[in-house]
Amino acid sequence: MGCLLKQGGGLYARLRIGAVLLAAGEGSRMGGVAKSLIRLQGVPLINRQLIALSGAGVDEVVVVTGYAREAVEAQVQSFPVTLAHNANYALGQQSSVRVGLAALSGNFDAIFIMLADQPLIGSADLTELIAAFKKRPKSEGGHVVVPVVNGQRGNPILLDDVARAQILASDTNLGCRQLIERQPELVHVHESTNTRFITDLDTLDDVAQLAQRTGWRLELPSRETAT
Questions:
Q1: pLDDT tens for each residue of 17-47
Q2: 83-135 pLDDT, tens per residue?
Q3: How far, in Å, CA of 58 to CA of 99, rounded?
Q4: Of 106 and 189, the one with more pLDDT
Q5: Whole-angstrom Cα distance, residue 95 to residue 168?
Q6: DSSP characters for 35-58?
Q7: Residues 199 and 210: beta-carbon distance below 8 Å
Q8: What's the confidence (pLDDT) of residue 171?
Q9: Number of other CB atoms surrounding residue 13 within 10 Å
Q10: Which uninterrupted H or E stretch holds 147?
Q11: Per-residue CA distances from 175 to 55, 59, 95, 146 (Å)
């Protein structure tokens, strides 16, 4: 019998969990804003993500930097994370996923692929995905747990070491929106009503709408900080 844990809930053996936090993008749809440095109620989004990961009991975190490298690294220096720089961040998100997965040390039962521009993700949301990972039917594959809310694919995703090895050894693209259709044998869909999984900040309109909906203060980083 496994341990009774808050993490994930139920009688399950504790998992060793890693995380790749993607903070390399150049925010082109926002005109060159380092989205991980956007402040929500005074706290940078990347800090919020790291706090959430810590609260969910994640064992190791790799932060992948690219655009605005120095500013992002300075922001996370007080956290016990591994930094991995993707010099080719302009090639897209999947190149950063590979850099992050390669930088994780050792083997993990599960690995989060996290986006730094999801402002509402907290430790309870990550714990929900950990529970889904533990309970997934392994006989049907389930190497990647993907949250889906009202038919919309969300993030973060959670993958096992089999999927990690496949990504590093091939051109498997877990960042593409067509993952479920293209490689269903890899995927366990976690149906959820949790809209935090599908709330992100891609455009300035997204920032304005979230501020209006929540009444919270959102501040973009200065141009000097984000370059």
A1: 999 999 999 999 999 999 999 999 999 999 9
A2: 999 999 998 888 999 999 999 998 899 999 999 999 999 999 999 999 999 99
A3: 19
A4: 189
A5: 10
A6: GGG-EETTEEHHHHHHHHHHHTT-
A7: yes
A8: 66
A9: 10
A10: strand 144-149
A11: 25, 23, 10, 11
Q: Alpha-carbon distance 28 to 45, whole Å?
A: 17
Round to whole Å and give the CA distance between 63 and 22: 6
CB 94, CB 112: distance < 8 Å? no
Cα of first residue to Cα of last residue in the chain, in angstroms, is 52
Q: Distance between CA atoms of 115 and 140, rounded to whole angstroms?
A: 27
Alpha-carbon gap, residue 197 to 117, rounded angstroms: 11
What residues contact residue 44 under an 8 Å CB cut-off, 6+ apart? 36, 37, 38, 75
List, in sequence order, the alpha helices (H) in 170-222: 179-182, 204-214
Q: At 225, which amino acid appears?
A: T
Please tell me the least confidently modeled range out of 105-114, 146-155, 168-177: 168-177
Report how far residue 80's alpha carbon sits from residue 64's, in angstroms, rounded to the nearest whole number.
14
User: Residue 140 contacts by C-beta under 8 Å, 6 or more apart in sequence?
Assistant: 188
In this predicted structure, what is the pLDDT of residue 215? 97
Quick one: pLDDT band at residue 182, thresholds 50, 70, 90? confident
- Cis peptide preceding 156, ω within 30 of 0: yes
Amino acid at position 135, single letter: K
List b or e across 66-75, with b for residues whose CB sees 16 or more CB atoms inside 10 angstroms: bbbbebbeeb
Q: Which of 44, 90, 51, 83 is nearest to 221 (CA)?
A: 44
